[in-house]
Protein backbone atom coordinates (compact mmCIF):
# COMPACT_ATOMS: atom_id res chain seq x y z
CA UNK A 1 0.00 0.00 0.00
CA UNK A 2 1.21 3.47 -0.82
CA UNK A 3 2.82 5.41 2.03
CA UNK A 4 0.65 8.34 0.97
CA UNK A 5 -2.52 6.76 2.35
CA UNK A 6 -4.02 6.17 5.83
CA UNK A 7 -3.50 9.80 6.88
CA UNK A 8 -6.84 10.00 8.68
CA UNK A 9 -5.10 9.55 12.05
CA UNK A 10 -3.01 12.71 11.58
CA UNK A 11 -5.03 14.82 9.17
CA UNK A 12 -8.46 16.31 9.85
CA UNK A 13 -11.35 16.26 7.42
CA UNK A 14 -11.61 19.39 5.29
CA UNK A 15 -14.04 20.53 2.62
CA UNK A 16 -13.28 23.00 -0.17
CA UNK A 17 -13.47 26.68 0.72
CA UNK A 18 -17.08 27.61 1.44
CA UNK A 19 -18.37 31.11 0.84
CA UNK A 20 -19.69 32.86 3.94
CA UNK A 21 -23.49 33.00 4.33
CA UNK A 22 -23.74 36.77 4.07
CA UNK A 23 -21.99 36.74 0.70
CA UNK A 24 -23.77 33.76 -0.81
CA UNK A 25 -27.24 35.04 0.18
CA UNK A 26 -26.76 37.79 -2.40
CA UNK A 27 -26.30 35.65 -5.52
CA UNK A 28 -26.90 32.22 -7.02
CA UNK A 29 -23.26 31.23 -7.44
CA UNK A 30 -22.10 27.81 -6.22
CA UNK A 31 -21.17 28.01 -2.55
CA UNK A 32 -18.12 25.73 -2.65
CA UNK A 33 -14.89 26.41 -4.53
CA UNK A 34 -13.02 23.64 -6.32
CA UNK A 35 -10.43 21.89 -4.15
CA UNK A 36 -6.91 23.30 -4.50
CA UNK A 37 -4.64 20.57 -5.91
CA UNK A 38 -2.68 19.92 -2.73
CA UNK A 39 -5.81 19.99 -0.57
CA UNK A 40 -7.49 17.40 -2.78
CA UNK A 41 -4.49 15.11 -2.59
CA UNK A 42 -4.25 15.60 1.17
CA UNK A 43 -7.91 14.74 1.72
CA UNK A 44 -7.80 11.74 -0.64
CA UNK A 45 -4.84 10.43 1.34
CA UNK A 46 -7.03 10.19 4.45
CA UNK A 47 -8.70 7.09 2.93
CA UNK A 48 -8.07 3.96 5.00
CA UNK A 49 -8.12 1.69 1.90
CA UNK A 50 -10.19 -0.76 3.92
CA UNK A 51 -10.59 -4.33 2.71
CA UNK A 52 -14.37 -4.04 2.56
CA UNK A 53 -15.09 -0.58 1.07
CA UNK A 54 -18.47 0.36 2.49
CA UNK A 55 -18.30 3.67 0.58
CA UNK A 56 -18.34 1.74 -2.69
CA UNK A 57 -20.99 -0.66 -1.43
CA UNK A 58 -23.29 2.24 -0.50
CA UNK A 59 -22.79 4.08 -3.77
CA UNK A 60 -25.72 3.21 -6.08
CA UNK A 61 -23.31 3.17 -9.03
CA UNK A 62 -20.73 1.04 -7.25
CA UNK A 63 -18.06 3.66 -7.95
CA UNK A 64 -14.55 2.37 -7.27
CA UNK A 65 -13.96 5.08 -4.69
CA UNK A 66 -10.91 3.72 -2.82
CA UNK A 67 -8.97 3.26 -6.07
CA UNK A 68 -9.56 6.74 -7.40
CA UNK A 69 -8.83 8.29 -3.99
CA UNK A 70 -5.47 6.49 -3.98
CA UNK A 71 -4.72 7.67 -7.52
CA UNK A 72 -5.48 11.28 -6.55
CA UNK A 73 -3.21 11.03 -3.50
CA UNK A 74 -0.45 9.76 -5.81
CA UNK A 75 -1.04 12.63 -8.29
CA UNK A 76 -2.20 10.21 -10.99
CA UNK A 77 -5.22 12.30 -11.90
CA UNK A 78 -5.79 11.14 -15.47
CA UNK A 79 -5.95 7.55 -14.25
CA UNK A 80 -8.26 8.65 -11.43
CA UNK A 81 -10.60 10.20 -14.02
CA UNK A 82 -10.55 7.00 -16.10
CA UNK A 83 -11.58 4.96 -13.05
CA UNK A 84 -14.20 7.45 -11.90
CA UNK A 85 -15.84 7.89 -15.31
CA UNK A 86 -15.89 4.14 -15.99
CA UNK A 87 -18.91 3.73 -13.70
CA UNK A 88 -20.46 7.22 -13.75
CA UNK A 89 -21.56 9.20 -16.79
CA UNK A 90 -21.61 12.53 -14.97
CA UNK A 91 -19.30 12.44 -11.91
CA UNK A 92 -18.93 16.23 -11.80
CA UNK A 93 -22.71 16.46 -11.29
CA UNK A 94 -22.94 13.69 -8.70
CA UNK A 95 -20.00 15.20 -6.83
CA UNK A 96 -22.04 18.38 -6.46
CA UNK A 97 -25.57 17.17 -5.75
CA UNK A 98 -25.47 13.61 -4.39
CA UNK A 99 -26.41 13.44 -0.69
CA UNK A 100 -23.06 11.90 0.20
CA UNK A 101 -23.92 12.08 3.89
CA UNK A 102 -26.61 9.42 3.23
CA UNK A 103 -24.54 7.36 0.79
CA UNK A 104 -20.78 6.95 0.38
CA UNK A 105 -19.54 9.39 3.03
CA UNK A 106 -22.15 8.31 5.55
CA UNK A 107 -20.83 4.75 5.25
CA UNK A 108 -17.12 5.60 5.33
CA UNK A 109 -15.26 3.39 7.83
CA UNK A 110 -13.22 6.22 9.32
CA UNK A 111 -16.44 8.24 9.80
CA UNK A 112 -17.79 5.36 11.87
CA UNK A 113 -14.57 5.32 13.92
CA UNK A 114 -14.91 9.01 14.76
CA UNK A 115 -12.21 10.48 12.53
CA UNK A 116 -14.51 12.23 10.07
CA UNK A 117 -15.34 10.87 6.64
CA UNK A 118 -13.21 11.35 3.57
CA UNK A 119 -14.65 14.21 1.47
CA UNK A 120 -15.52 11.83 -1.35
CA UNK A 121 -17.96 14.07 -3.23
CA UNK A 122 -15.61 17.04 -3.37
CA UNK A 123 -12.71 14.89 -4.55
CA UNK A 124 -14.96 13.34 -7.21
CA UNK A 125 -15.87 16.82 -8.45
CA UNK A 126 -12.20 17.86 -8.36
CA UNK A 127 -11.15 14.88 -10.50
CA UNK A 128 -13.66 15.57 -13.26
CA UNK A 129 -13.25 19.36 -13.28
CA UNK A 130 -9.51 18.78 -13.69
CA UNK A 131 -10.24 16.33 -16.51
CA UNK A 132 -12.34 18.95 -18.33
CA UNK A 133 -9.60 21.56 -17.87
CA UNK A 134 -6.91 19.20 -19.14
CA UNK A 135 -8.92 17.99 -22.13
CA UNK A 136 -9.16 14.39 -20.93
CA UNK A 137 -12.94 14.24 -21.44
CA UNK A 138 -13.21 13.07 -25.04
CA UNK A 139 -16.34 12.63 -27.19
CA UNK A 140 -17.49 9.04 -27.57
CA UNK A 141 -16.10 7.42 -30.69
CA UNK A 142 -17.51 3.89 -31.03
CA UNK A 143 -15.39 1.22 -32.66
CA UNK A 144 -18.14 0.75 -35.24
CA UNK A 145 -21.37 2.50 -36.14
CA UNK A 146 -24.53 0.40 -36.15
CA UNK A 147 -27.63 1.26 -38.21
CA UNK A 148 -30.07 0.54 -35.40
CA UNK A 149 -31.47 3.54 -33.59
CA UNK A 150 -32.85 4.20 -30.14
CA UNK A 151 -35.30 6.96 -29.30
CA UNK A 152 -35.10 8.30 -25.76
CA UNK A 153 -37.97 10.31 -24.27
CA UNK A 154 -36.51 12.70 -21.70
CA UNK A 155 -33.19 14.55 -21.52
CA UNK A 156 -32.72 14.19 -17.77
CA UNK A 157 -29.98 12.15 -16.07
CA UNK A 158 -31.45 8.72 -16.90
CA UNK A 159 -31.86 9.57 -20.57
CA UNK A 160 -28.43 11.21 -20.84
CA UNK A 161 -26.65 8.30 -19.16
CA UNK A 162 -28.40 5.79 -21.41
CA UNK A 163 -27.59 7.85 -24.50
CA UNK A 164 -23.87 7.88 -23.77
CA UNK A 165 -23.77 4.15 -23.10
CA UNK A 166 -25.69 3.38 -26.30
CA UNK A 167 -23.37 5.57 -28.34
CA UNK A 168 -20.36 3.68 -26.95
CA UNK A 169 -21.91 0.58 -28.48
CA UNK A 170 -22.37 2.34 -31.82
CA UNK A 171 -26.15 2.78 -31.88
CA UNK A 172 -27.77 5.88 -33.33
CA UNK A 173 -29.44 7.84 -30.54
CA UNK A 174 -32.05 10.59 -30.63
CA UNK A 175 -33.40 12.24 -27.46
CA UNK A 176 -36.81 13.91 -27.44
CA UNK A 177 -37.53 16.38 -24.65
CA UNK A 178 -40.42 18.69 -23.76
CA UNK A 179 -38.10 21.47 -22.62
CA UNK A 180 -36.05 23.89 -24.71
CA UNK A 181 -32.79 22.93 -23.02
CA UNK A 182 -31.09 19.64 -22.24
CA UNK A 183 -30.96 18.44 -18.65
CA UNK A 184 -34.50 18.19 -17.30
CA UNK A 185 -34.56 18.88 -13.57
CA UNK A 186 -30.77 19.36 -13.63
CA UNK A 187 -31.49 22.64 -15.43
CA UNK A 188 -34.96 23.69 -14.29
CA UNK A 189 -35.33 22.04 -10.88
CA UNK A 190 -31.94 22.38 -9.18
CA UNK A 191 -30.74 25.92 -8.39
CA UNK A 192 -27.40 27.32 -9.55
CA UNK A 193 -25.97 27.50 -6.04
CA UNK A 194 -25.91 23.70 -6.06
CA UNK A 195 -25.32 23.05 -9.76
CA UNK A 196 -24.27 25.79 -12.13
CA UNK A 197 -26.05 25.44 -15.45
CA UNK A 198 -22.81 25.71 -17.41
CA UNK A 199 -21.86 22.34 -15.94
CA UNK A 200 -24.99 20.73 -17.41
CA UNK A 201 -24.59 22.52 -20.75
CA UNK A 202 -21.01 21.27 -21.02
CA UNK A 203 -22.17 17.68 -20.51
CA UNK A 204 -24.92 18.15 -23.13
CA UNK A 205 -22.37 19.50 -25.62
CA UNK A 206 -20.18 16.48 -24.93
CA UNK A 207 -23.05 14.19 -25.90
CA UNK A 208 -23.78 16.20 -29.04
CA UNK A 209 -20.13 15.87 -30.06
CA UNK A 210 -20.51 12.14 -29.37
CA UNK A 211 -23.24 11.92 -32.00
CA UNK A 212 -26.37 12.08 -29.83
CA UNK A 213 -29.16 14.03 -31.54
CA UNK A 214 -31.51 16.23 -29.48
CA UNK A 215 -35.06 17.26 -30.38
CA UNK A 216 -36.26 19.96 -27.97
CA UNK A 217 -39.77 21.31 -27.35
CA UNK A 218 -41.11 17.90 -28.29
CA UNK A 219 -44.04 16.46 -26.36
CA UNK A 220 -44.82 12.80 -26.90
CA UNK A 221 -48.57 12.62 -27.27
CA UNK A 222 -48.73 16.08 -28.84
CA UNK A 223 -45.99 15.99 -31.49
CA UNK A 224 -45.97 12.23 -31.98
CA UNK A 225 -47.50 9.21 -30.33
CA UNK A 226 -45.45 6.51 -28.68
CA UNK A 227 -46.46 4.19 -31.54
CA UNK A 228 -45.00 6.64 -34.06
CA UNK A 229 -41.70 6.79 -32.16
CA UNK A 230 -41.61 3.01 -32.05
CA UNK A 231 -42.02 2.94 -35.82
CA UNK A 232 -39.08 5.34 -36.19
CA UNK A 233 -36.69 3.48 -33.88
CA UNK A 234 -35.55 -0.05 -33.11
CA UNK A 235 -36.07 0.57 -29.40
CA UNK A 236 -37.52 3.34 -27.24
CA UNK A 237 -36.55 4.34 -23.71
CA UNK A 238 -38.98 6.33 -21.54
CA UNK A 239 -36.98 8.50 -19.13
CA UNK A 240 -39.40 11.32 -18.45
CA UNK A 241 -39.07 11.58 -14.69
CA UNK A 242 -42.07 12.46 -12.51
CA UNK A 243 -43.44 15.99 -12.60
CA UNK A 244 -46.93 15.92 -11.13
CA UNK A 245 -46.79 17.82 -7.82
CA UNK A 246 -48.51 16.40 -4.75
CA UNK A 247 -51.16 18.80 -3.53
CA UNK A 248 -51.71 20.43 -0.18
CA UNK A 249 -54.72 18.95 1.60
CA UNK A 250 -56.04 21.75 3.77
CA UNK A 251 -58.45 24.70 3.51
CA UNK A 252 -57.07 27.56 1.44
CA UNK A 253 -54.77 25.31 -0.62
CA UNK A 254 -56.16 26.88 -3.80
CA UNK A 255 -55.56 30.47 -2.74
CA UNK A 256 -53.39 32.74 -4.84
CA UNK A 257 -49.91 32.74 -3.33
CA UNK A 258 -49.90 28.95 -2.87
CA UNK A 259 -47.59 27.56 -5.56
CA UNK A 260 -45.93 24.28 -6.51
CA UNK A 261 -42.21 23.92 -5.83
CA UNK A 262 -41.28 23.03 -9.39
CA UNK A 263 -43.16 26.03 -10.81
CA UNK A 264 -41.30 28.25 -8.38
CA UNK A 265 -37.86 26.75 -9.04
CA UNK A 266 -38.35 26.65 -12.81
CA UNK A 267 -39.26 30.34 -12.87
CA UNK A 268 -36.17 31.22 -10.86
CA UNK A 269 -33.86 29.08 -12.98
CA UNK A 270 -35.29 30.48 -16.21
CA UNK A 271 -34.68 34.02 -14.98
CA UNK A 272 -31.12 33.03 -14.19
CA UNK A 273 -30.76 31.76 -17.75
CA UNK A 274 -31.99 35.08 -19.12
CA UNK A 275 -35.50 34.01 -20.12
CA UNK A 276 -38.57 36.21 -19.89
CA UNK A 277 -40.84 34.75 -17.21
CA UNK A 278 -44.14 36.59 -16.81
CA UNK A 279 -45.11 34.85 -13.55
CA UNK A 280 -41.82 35.94 -12.02
CA UNK A 281 -41.85 39.46 -13.43
CA UNK A 282 -45.37 40.14 -12.10
CA UNK A 283 -44.30 38.99 -8.63
CA UNK A 284 -46.32 35.78 -8.46
CA UNK A 285 -43.23 33.53 -8.32
CA UNK A 286 -40.78 36.05 -6.88
CA UNK A 287 -40.15 35.95 -3.12
CA UNK A 288 -38.71 39.45 -2.84
CA UNK A 289 -39.91 41.24 0.33
CA UNK A 290 -42.36 38.42 1.11
CA UNK A 291 -42.86 36.18 4.12
CA UNK A 292 -42.27 32.74 2.61
CA UNK A 293 -43.34 29.40 4.06
CA UNK A 294 -42.12 26.21 2.40
CA UNK A 295 -43.92 22.97 3.28
CA UNK A 296 -41.83 19.81 3.06
CA UNK A 297 -38.62 18.24 4.31
CA UNK A 298 -36.81 16.92 1.23
CA UNK A 299 -34.07 18.34 -0.95
CA UNK A 300 -36.62 20.16 -3.11
CA UNK A 301 -37.82 22.03 -0.02
CA UNK A 302 -34.21 23.01 0.73
CA UNK A 303 -33.83 24.26 -2.84
CA UNK A 304 -36.94 26.40 -2.38
CA UNK A 305 -36.02 27.96 0.96
CA UNK A 306 -32.50 28.79 -0.20
CA UNK A 307 -33.82 30.26 -3.45
CA UNK A 308 -36.26 32.46 -1.51
CA UNK A 309 -33.40 33.76 0.63
CA UNK A 310 -31.50 34.80 -2.51
CA UNK A 311 -34.56 36.49 -3.98
CA UNK A 312 -34.65 38.80 -0.97
CA UNK A 313 -37.52 37.32 1.03
CA UNK A 314 -38.48 39.14 4.20
CA UNK A 315 -38.55 35.84 6.10
CA UNK A 316 -38.24 32.18 5.12
CA UNK A 317 -39.69 29.35 7.22
CA UNK A 318 -39.69 25.62 6.49
CA UNK A 319 -42.48 23.50 7.97
CA UNK A 320 -41.81 19.79 8.39
CA UNK A 321 -44.24 17.44 10.11
CA UNK A 322 -41.57 15.20 11.62
CA UNK A 323 -38.40 16.07 13.55
CA UNK A 324 -34.90 16.87 12.28
CA UNK A 325 -33.74 13.28 12.74
CA UNK A 326 -36.46 12.00 10.42
CA UNK A 327 -36.08 14.65 7.74
CA UNK A 328 -35.55 13.00 4.32
CA UNK A 329 -33.43 15.80 2.87
CA UNK A 330 -29.66 16.10 3.00
CA UNK A 331 -28.20 17.03 6.38
CA UNK A 332 -25.67 19.20 4.56
CA UNK A 333 -28.35 21.13 2.69
CA UNK A 334 -30.35 21.69 5.87
CA UNK A 335 -27.25 23.07 7.58
CA UNK A 336 -26.56 25.36 4.60
CA UNK A 337 -30.14 26.67 4.78
CA UNK A 338 -29.84 27.38 8.51
CA UNK A 339 -26.57 29.25 7.93
CA UNK A 340 -28.36 31.41 5.38
CA UNK A 341 -31.09 32.38 7.84
CA UNK A 342 -33.90 29.92 7.16
CA UNK A 343 -36.11 29.16 10.19
CA UNK A 344 -37.15 25.53 10.66
CA UNK A 345 -40.37 24.61 12.39
CA UNK A 346 -39.97 20.93 13.17
CA UNK A 347 -43.00 18.81 14.06
CA UNK A 348 -45.28 21.30 12.35
CA UNK A 349 -47.87 20.79 9.61
CA UNK A 350 -50.17 23.19 7.73
CA UNK A 351 -53.74 23.24 8.94
CA UNK A 352 -55.14 26.06 6.76
CA UNK A 353 -53.90 28.83 4.50
CA UNK A 354 -55.48 32.10 5.59
CA UNK A 355 -56.64 34.74 3.14
CA UNK A 356 -58.86 34.27 0.13
CA UNK A 357 -58.77 33.22 -3.51
CA UNK A 358 -56.96 36.43 -4.44
CA UNK A 359 -54.24 36.42 -1.79
CA UNK A 360 -52.57 34.29 0.86
CA UNK A 361 -52.51 36.07 4.20
CA UNK A 362 -50.79 33.68 6.57
CA UNK A 363 -50.92 30.05 7.53
CA UNK A 364 -52.41 28.23 10.50
CA UNK A 365 -50.02 25.51 11.70
CA UNK A 366 -50.67 22.42 13.79
CA UNK A 367 -48.04 21.28 16.25
CA UNK A 368 -47.25 17.58 15.82
CA UNK A 369 -45.67 14.77 17.78
CA UNK A 370 -44.41 11.39 16.63
CA UNK A 371 -46.73 8.49 17.39
CA UNK A 372 -46.58 4.80 16.51
CA UNK A 373 -44.81 3.61 13.35
CA UNK A 374 -46.88 3.66 10.14
CA UNK A 375 -46.79 1.19 7.23
CA UNK A 376 -43.37 2.50 6.17
CA UNK A 377 -41.91 1.77 9.61
CA UNK A 378 -41.49 5.47 10.42
CA UNK A 379 -43.24 6.99 13.42
CA UNK A 380 -46.35 8.75 12.16
CA UNK A 381 -46.88 12.43 13.03
CA UNK A 382 -49.93 13.06 15.19
CA UNK A 383 -51.46 16.47 15.88
CA UNK A 384 -51.01 17.87 19.38
CA UNK A 385 -54.35 19.10 20.69
CA UNK A 386 -54.31 22.83 21.38
CA UNK A 387 -50.90 23.28 19.75
CA UNK A 388 -51.98 25.48 16.83
CA UNK A 389 -50.11 28.66 15.95
CA UNK A 390 -50.05 31.18 13.10
CA UNK A 391 -47.28 32.29 10.75
CA UNK A 392 -47.16 35.26 8.40
CA UNK A 393 -47.11 34.06 4.81
CA UNK A 394 -47.46 35.93 1.52
CA UNK A 395 -46.05 33.02 -0.49
CA UNK A 396 -46.63 29.36 0.41
CA UNK A 397 -44.58 26.82 -1.55
CA UNK A 398 -45.68 23.17 -1.70
CA UNK A 399 -42.59 20.92 -1.73
CA UNK A 400 -44.44 17.69 -0.95
CA UNK A 401 -42.93 15.49 -3.62
CA UNK A 402 -43.87 14.39 -7.11
CA UNK A 403 -46.00 11.70 -8.70
CA UNK A 404 -46.08 10.27 -12.24
CA UNK A 405 -48.21 11.74 -14.97
CA UNK A 406 -50.68 9.43 -16.71
CA UNK A 407 -48.34 8.08 -19.36
CA UNK A 408 -50.74 5.63 -21.05
CA UNK A 409 -53.16 8.52 -21.61
CA UNK A 410 -50.46 11.09 -22.38
CA UNK A 411 -48.64 8.86 -24.87
CA UNK A 412 -51.78 7.46 -26.48
CA UNK A 413 -50.68 3.98 -25.42
CA UNK A 414 -53.31 2.25 -23.25
CA UNK A 415 -51.30 -0.99 -23.46
CA UNK A 416 -48.53 0.63 -21.41
CA UNK A 417 -48.98 -0.91 -17.96
CA UNK A 418 -48.46 1.01 -14.74
CA UNK A 419 -48.12 0.07 -11.07
CA UNK A 420 -50.52 1.01 -8.29
CA UNK A 421 -48.38 4.12 -7.76
CA UNK A 422 -48.69 5.14 -11.41
CA UNK A 423 -45.06 4.39 -12.27
CA UNK A 424 -44.34 2.34 -15.37
CA UNK A 425 -44.35 -1.41 -14.82
CA UNK A 426 -41.09 -2.96 -16.03
CA UNK A 427 -39.21 -6.22 -16.02
CA UNK A 428 -36.80 -5.71 -13.08
CA UNK A 429 -33.92 -7.36 -14.94
CA UNK A 430 -34.18 -5.52 -18.28
CA UNK A 431 -36.41 -2.50 -17.49
CA UNK A 432 -38.56 -3.41 -20.50
CA UNK A 433 -42.16 -2.26 -20.19
CA UNK A 434 -45.31 -4.14 -21.11
CA UNK A 435 -44.75 -3.02 -24.71
CA UNK A 436 -41.99 -5.04 -26.43
CA UNK A 437 -39.04 -2.88 -27.38
CA UNK A 438 -40.07 -0.04 -25.05
CA UNK A 439 -38.00 0.38 -21.89
CA UNK A 440 -38.19 2.79 -18.97
CA UNK A 441 -35.63 4.17 -16.51
CA UNK A 442 -35.28 6.60 -13.64
CA UNK A 443 -38.02 8.23 -11.58
CA UNK A 444 -40.78 7.09 -13.92
CA UNK A 445 -39.96 3.54 -12.76
CA UNK A 446 -38.88 3.97 -9.13
CA UNK A 447 -40.76 7.15 -8.19
CA UNK A 448 -39.17 10.45 -7.24
CA UNK A 449 -35.60 9.62 -6.27
CA UNK A 450 -31.99 10.73 -6.61
CA UNK A 451 -30.05 11.71 -9.74
CA UNK A 452 -27.54 8.96 -9.03
CA UNK A 453 -30.29 6.31 -9.14
CA UNK A 454 -31.51 7.71 -12.45
CA UNK A 455 -28.00 7.27 -13.84
CA UNK A 456 -27.95 3.69 -12.53
CA UNK A 457 -31.22 2.94 -14.30
CA UNK A 458 -30.16 4.65 -17.52
CA UNK A 459 -27.02 2.51 -17.70
CA UNK A 460 -28.97 -0.64 -16.90
CA UNK A 461 -31.59 0.03 -19.56
CA UNK A 462 -28.91 0.85 -22.12
CA UNK A 463 -27.17 -2.46 -21.45
CA UNK A 464 -30.44 -4.39 -21.90
CA UNK A 465 -31.29 -2.52 -25.10
CA UNK A 466 -27.81 -3.07 -26.51
CA UNK A 467 -27.92 -6.80 -25.76
CA UNK A 468 -31.27 -7.15 -27.50
CA UNK A 469 -30.36 -5.08 -30.56
CA UNK A 470 -26.97 -6.71 -30.99
CA UNK A 471 -28.67 -10.05 -31.21
CA UNK A 472 -30.46 -8.76 -34.32
CA UNK A 473 -27.72 -6.41 -35.55
CA UNK A 474 -27.51 -5.60 -39.22
CA UNK A 475 -24.39 -4.77 -41.19
CA UNK A 476 -22.43 -1.98 -39.44
CA UNK A 477 -22.19 1.44 -41.02
CA UNK A 478 -18.74 2.10 -42.50
CA UNK A 479 -16.77 4.53 -40.35
CA UNK A 480 -16.05 7.87 -42.00
Automatic annotation (TrEMBL):
<feature type="domain" description="FAD/NAD(P)-binding">
    <location>
        <begin position="150"/>
        <end position="455"/>
    </location>
</feature>
<keyword id="KW-0479">Metal-binding</keyword>
<dbReference type="Pfam" id="PF07992">
    <property type="entry name" value="Pyr_redox_2"/>
</dbReference>
<protein>
    <submittedName>
        <fullName>NAD(P)-dependent oxidoreductase</fullName>
    </submittedName>
</protein>
<dbReference type="InterPro" id="IPR006006">
    <property type="entry name" value="GltD-like"/>
</dbReference>
<keyword id="KW-0408">Iron</keyword>
<keyword id="KW-0411">Iron-sulfur</keyword>
<dbReference type="Pfam" id="PF14691">
    <property type="entry name" value="Fer4_20"/>
</dbReference>
<dbReference type="InterPro" id="IPR036188">
    <property type="entry name" value="FAD/NAD-bd_sf"/>
</dbReference>
<dbReference type="InterPro" id="IPR009051">
    <property type="entry name" value="Helical_ferredxn"/>
</dbReference>
<keyword id="KW-0004">4Fe-4S</keyword>
<dbReference type="InterPro" id="IPR023753">
    <property type="entry name" value="FAD/NAD-binding_dom"/>
</dbReference>
<feature type="domain" description="Dihydroprymidine dehydrogenase">
    <location>
        <begin position="25"/>
        <end position="135"/>
    </location>
</feature>
<feature type="region of interest" description="Disordered">
    <location>
        <begin position="1"/>
        <end position="23"/>
    </location>
</feature>
<dbReference type="InterPro" id="IPR028261">
    <property type="entry name" value="DPD_II"/>
</dbReference>
<keyword id="KW-0560">Oxidoreductase</keyword>
Amino acid sequence: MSERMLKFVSRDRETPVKRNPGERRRDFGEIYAKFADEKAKAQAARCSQCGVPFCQDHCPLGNDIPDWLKLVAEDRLEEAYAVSSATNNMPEICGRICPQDRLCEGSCVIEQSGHGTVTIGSVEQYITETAWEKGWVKPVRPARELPQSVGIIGAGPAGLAAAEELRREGFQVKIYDRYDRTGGLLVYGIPNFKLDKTVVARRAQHLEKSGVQFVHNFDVGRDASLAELRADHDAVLVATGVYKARDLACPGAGNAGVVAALDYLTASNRKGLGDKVDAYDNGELDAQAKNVVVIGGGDTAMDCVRTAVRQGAKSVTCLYRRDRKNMPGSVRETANAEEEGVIFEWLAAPKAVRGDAAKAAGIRVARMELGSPDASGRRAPVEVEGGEFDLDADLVIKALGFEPEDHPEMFGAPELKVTARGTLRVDPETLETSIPGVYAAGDIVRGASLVVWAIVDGRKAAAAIAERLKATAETPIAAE
